[in-house]
Amino acid sequence: MSLSKVLSLALVIAVACASPVLKxxxxxxxxxxxxxxAFPLGDACDHEWQYVNFNSDDDTDRVRLQKLHDVICIGxxxxxxxxxxxxxxxxxxxxxxxxxxxxxxxxxQTHVKDVLGLIAGTSSTDGAIGSVVETFVVDNLDFxxxxxxxxxxxxxxxxxxxxxxELDSREKIHFCEPSWTRGGAGDVDxxxxxxxxxxxxxxxxxxxxxxxxxxxxxxxxxxxxxQIVDQKNADGVGAYDPERVHGLIDPEQDDNPVLTxxxxxxxxxxxLDAWISRKCAEDASNNNWASxxxxxxxxxxxxx
Length: 304
Description:
There is one protein chain. Helix content is 29%, strand content 5%. The model is unreliable at 1-26 (pLDDT under 50). It is mainly alpha-helical.
C-alpha cells in the first residue's frame, strides 16, 4: 500500500509504487491501446473514471470493474477525500498528524484542502465526486512493463502506479494484483484497530486516492501548483504508510513538513485516518470523531 517518488515539475508524471521496481529482462511489443470507455457493465455514475483493456466477458475483469465502479459511485472515495478536506479546513487531529499548520511561508492547510476538494467535488446536493475524476483512466494492462523508463508491477510489493503510457500518451492508473485484495474502508473492524493509525485500516479506496493524487491535473491544478509525487524519508526510503508519513513531519524524526504537501501517501492516509475516525468514534457529533485515535503512529525504523 505503499506506493507510489520534489522531483522537479519537469517530471511528466510521478509514479506510485510501494518499493523499488525490478525490471524484467524483456519487453513485449504492444499495439496502440484502445480508447478508454465508460463503465461497461451498466450505467456509469456522474464523473466516474474511464476504463481500458478490461474484458467484460471475463469473470475476474468483471469483479475488478465492479470494484472500481463501486469505490466511486457508492461514495467511499468522496467520503474519505471529503473528511480529509474537512480535517485540513478545521485543523483537526488527523490533519495535524501528517501536515503542518499554515504559516507566513506556506499555506499548508489551504493547499491540502484544495487538493482533496478537487477530488471530493464541491456540490452538497448531487453526491457526485469531483469532475476531474472523469478524466482519469484505469488501464487493466500493466502498460509500464513495456516502457523501460516507467515503473510496473514486477515488484511483488507494488500496489499500483500512475504514469503516462508511451504508446497513447495518456496518463493512466494501473492496479497491480495485490491491490485487488484490499477491502472497503466500510468493512474495517474498528475493534481490531490500534490506538494509533496503522495499516490495519488500509483499503482499496486509500490506494485509489493515492493514485489519483499523482495525476498532473491535481496538484498543479490547485493552489498547491506542484506535482504530487512520492517523497522519501530522511533514510532515503519512500514515505509510505502511517509510520513513515507521520515521520516526515515529526520534529523528533525527519521534521520536514515541506515534503508532506507533495507526498501522495500523506494525503491518502490522512483522509483514511479521518474517515475511519468518523466511522469508529462512539461520539461522532460535531468534530468529536477526530480524536478517535489517541496516539500518533510509532516512529519508523530507519533503513540501514
